[in-house]
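About this split. The held-out portion is used to measure sequence recovery: a designer receives only the structure tokens and must propose an amino acid at every position. Recovery is the fraction of positions where the proposal matches the reference. Here is one held-out target exactly as it appears in the evaluation file.
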């Protein structure tokens, strides 16, 4: 049975540290590439997500990630509103 944590369209298998032949380096590289391919360009954000997945806090990480996206969307909406307002010249 395999448990998979998903972010948007990204699927990351959880690290199985208890396995004797677990390859952490391979898992971390694969997870980082998947997150980068999903559009998470900031290295610090990818590292936070990977560390929190290792600590078993995937639900909290997902909620925090979407909360951050919501804040970014609000800011973008404010910028679009400001840029699309017409200025009448007299």
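Reference sequence for scoring:
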């Amino acid at each position: 049975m395999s448990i998979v944590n998903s972010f948007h369209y990204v699927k990351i298998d959880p690290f199985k540290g208890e396995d004797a032949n677990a390859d952490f380096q391979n898992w971390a590289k694969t997870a980082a590439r998947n997150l980068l391919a999903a559009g998470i360009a900031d290295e610090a954000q990818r590292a936070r997500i990977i560390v929190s997945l290792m600590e078993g806090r995937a639900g909290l990480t997902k909620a925090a990630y979407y909360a951050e996206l919501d804040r970014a969307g609000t800011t973008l909406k404010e910028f679009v509103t400001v840029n699309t307002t017409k200025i009448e010249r007299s």
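Annotator remark: Residues 56-89 form one domain.
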